[in-house]
Specification:
CATH topology: Rossmann fold
Shape: globular
Structural class: alpha/beta
Helix content: 25-40%
Length: 254
């Protein structure tokens, strides 16, 4: 089952979607799920994951939300500090209003970047367990690879360029500079290593697996490599494998 709701705090209105099995008021485990750049809270991969985990384990729910400028969000200029604010407000809502006893995180691509940055900048990890699929650890490199000389000329004039799929998102030079200055691979996450797994495809062209290999080795984080999987895990067989591994990692203790 699913339910849409909004979190209205600090001048923001965060559009959220909740997945659950039967009882909305008996959820001890909440997974906050985030997606890649240009996506939205109606993400099919998250829906598939939510269906599997809420069916398999009692008391599980999954919350997904629209990042700023994504989906039905009202903002029109992407600012990374606001992405961090959104994450913090959703964590607070899940903890305080939904009274979740255990909070997990499942994030992919850009969502994984924001989650890692959130953990570093807030100096605390609210997630008991975190699973990253195809994380864009060097998010600036992933974005810059698709910016032309013409785009850069526009950015250098103080104007924005448009990126995205169903909804076009305004990208500024300030946004890209922020990504470049705050590359999460430079930070230390060893204190959280036991509570994180990473799943990455060997054929990922958006976020090269070599970056995840270096990051996982540096931080002693388990990395599960999926042979021939691309960035979105478009082959259903590979996606099923990834979901199965995340389910096993999130399994409640007996």
């Amino acid at each position: 089952m699913e339910k849409n709701f909004d979190i209205n705090e600090q001048g923001f209105s965060i559009r959220c979607k909740m997945y659950y099995n039967k009882d909305l008021h008996d959820l001890k485990y909440i997974v906050i799920a985030t997606y890649g750049f240009g996506g939205n809270k109606d993400n099919k991969a998250i829906e598939k994951f939510a269906d599997r985990i809420t069916t398999k384990y009692k008391g599980f729910g999954v919350v997904c939300f629209d990042w700023p400028c994504h989906g039905k969000d009202a903002r029109n200029k992407l600012i990374l500090s606001e992405c961090l604010n959104y994450m913090d407000l959703v964590v607070s809502h899940v903890k305080t209003d939904m009274k979740a006893e255990h909070i997990y995180n499942y994030s992919s691509s850009f969502g994984a970047y924001v989650t890692l940055r959130y953990i570093h900048e807030y100096g605390v990890n609210p997630f008991e367990k975190t699973a990253f699929r195809c994380p864009a650890i060097k998010m600036y490199d992933s974005m810059a690879a698709h910016i032309t000389d013409e785009d850069r000329a526009v950015l250098n004039k103080g104007k924005e360029i448009l990126r995205g799929f169903d909804r076009k998102i305004k990208i500024s030079k300030e946004f890209l500079d922020d990504l470049a200055e705050n590359e999460v691979s430079q930070y230390d996450f060893m204190d959280y290593a036991d509570d994180i797994i990473m799943i990455h495809g060997t054929k990922d062209e958006m976020a090269p697996i070599e970056v995840s290999r270096d990051f996982s080795e540096k931080n002693v984080i388990e990395l599960i490599e999926v042979e021939n999987a691309d960035h979105p895990f478009s082959n259903p067989k590979y996606m099923d494998f990834a979901i199965q591994k995340i389910q096993e990692f999130f399994a409640p203790e007996e």
